[in-house]
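Need a sequence for this fold. Nothing fancy.
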């Protein structure tokens, strides 16, 4: 064991969440209840998982907090932005994820979490219609930040950045926070393709923000830029392009801040990243994998818009291709689509209001075995979206804060375990790691290394 060089987790950790919807309020309520001893943080790796350190007679299995200095739940302070003005208690009740009996004990704390106006562009989420949004920096003596003629007008992208930076500064000072992490748990934006002339160089990205380029600069990019500029790690919990661009990687390196993304891996993709290795390890063939989902809540509503679904589709489709590779095993994975170059893979999401937050994922998997004889696998995962996402939020925030104190910056590949479409340097031909057990190895090795132990497992 070498000396642990991670800065201790002293003082308060501010967690600023973009979005005060079902996922956010379930996450916040759960943490507040857990630290009162009124519930258990089930599903959280940082609170329950144990990792082996040492080998042979020296082997020990320890909780993460016994290996590295994690922030304690008692030291967390929450804040948020949202297009709707309801406080966290009202939002949690409205979301109907948790029962009233699991919200009321922390009502006072939740009511104090009032969303700051969001940096919002309706063109990126047409199904949302809130009015708690930031206005252009033209002051009216009677009504705060207003546009011309007293009307609220959308700020430029650079104004959004400046407003968000001020929010972070004020929150940190008002709550006496030693450190802040910013987490995106808001809706999926419309798909923004990577544009080399805007997204590859930080100077080009900044120029586009200052020119108010609304086509190439999503509001989420303003949050990320503001967070990193204020010394806060940024986590992208939706499939948005946001930090998955070289310009943001440059900013993260310049500010020495960690970034992680993208898209929380909660239900169907968690199953896919864990089950696909069974097919691959057993050397069975795959002709096709059809996945469909039904869900309600605000997430389902936003994804009912084709442009927003496209962003999610790209994220969900990326999982299989790096686990079951036609070029490596053409006999097993080289057939099934019209071009007969690989298996057929289709993903669907259907908005179904009666189900609310209780998402249902159906998978039909057409495999084949000895002498090409076909077989089928059916998986029906009746899950609760926010119940699965909440512990991921906690883990990603605590581990991103840890990474920052350990001097790790840029893309945090060890957090791929928690994410649906893990970030990677595609400009250098790097391939994302989607295999769940390989991701878990990366996670364990990073914790070992930050704890001063040997990272003693390999990804085969």
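Here you go.
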């Amino acid at each position: 064991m070498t000396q642990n060089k991670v800065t201790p987790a002293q003082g308060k950790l501010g967690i600023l969440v973009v979005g005060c919807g079902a996922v956010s309020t379930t996450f916040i309520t759960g943490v507040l209840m857990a630290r009162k001893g009124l519930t258990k943080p089930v599903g959280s790796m940082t609170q329950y998982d144990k990792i082996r350190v040492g080998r042979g007679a020296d082997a020990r299995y320890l909780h993460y907090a016994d290996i590295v200095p994690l922030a304690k739940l008692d030291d967390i302070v929450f804040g948020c932005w949202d297009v709707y003005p309801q406080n966290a208690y009202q939002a949690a009740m409205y979301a109907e994820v948790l029962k009233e009996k699991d919200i009321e004990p922390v009502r006072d704390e939740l009511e104090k979490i009032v969303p700051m106006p969001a940096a919002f562009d309706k063109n990126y989420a047409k199904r949302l219609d809130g009015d708690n949004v930031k206005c252009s920096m033209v002051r009216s003596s009677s009504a705060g930040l207003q546009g011309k003629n007293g009307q609220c007008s959308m700020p430029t992208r650079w104004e959004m950045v400046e407003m968000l930076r001020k929010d972070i500064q004020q929150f940190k000072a008002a709550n006496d926070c030693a450190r802040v992490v910013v987490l995106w748990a808001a809706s999926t934006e419309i798909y923004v393709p990577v544009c080399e002339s805007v997204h590859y160089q930080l100077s080009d990205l900044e120029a586009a923000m200052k020119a108010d380029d609304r086509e190439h600069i999503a509001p989420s990019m303003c949050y990320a830029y503001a967070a990193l500029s204020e010394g806060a790690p940024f986590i992208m919990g939706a499939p948005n392009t946001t930090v998955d661009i070289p310009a943001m990687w440059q900013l993260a390196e310049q500010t020495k801040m960690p970034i992680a993304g993208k898209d929380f891996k909660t239900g169907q993709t968690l199953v896919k990243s864990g089950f696909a290795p069974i097919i691959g390890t057993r050397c069975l063939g795959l002709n096709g994998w059809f996945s469909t989902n039904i869900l309600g809540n605000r997430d389902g509503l936003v994804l009912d818009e084709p442009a927003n679904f496209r962003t999610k589709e790209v994220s969900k489709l990326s999982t299989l291709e790096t686990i079951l590779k036609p070029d490596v095993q053409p006999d097993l994975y080289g057939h099934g689509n019209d071009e007969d170059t690989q298996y057929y893979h289709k993903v669907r999401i259907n908005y179904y209001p009666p189900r609310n937050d209780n998402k249902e994922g159906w998978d039909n998997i057409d495999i084949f075995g000895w002498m090409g004889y076909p077989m089928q696998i059916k998986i029906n995962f009746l899950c609760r979206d926010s119940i699965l996402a909440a512990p991921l939020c906690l883990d990603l925030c605590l581990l991103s804060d840890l990474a920052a104190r350990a001097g790790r910056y840029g893309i945090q590949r060890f957090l791929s375990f928690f994410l649906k479409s893990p970030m990677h340097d595609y400009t250098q031909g790097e391939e994302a790691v989607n295999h769940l057990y390989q991701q878990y190895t990366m996670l364990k090795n990073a914790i070992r290394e930050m704890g001063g132990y040997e990272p003693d497992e390999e990804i085969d």
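For context: The first strand starts at residue 12 and ends at 18.
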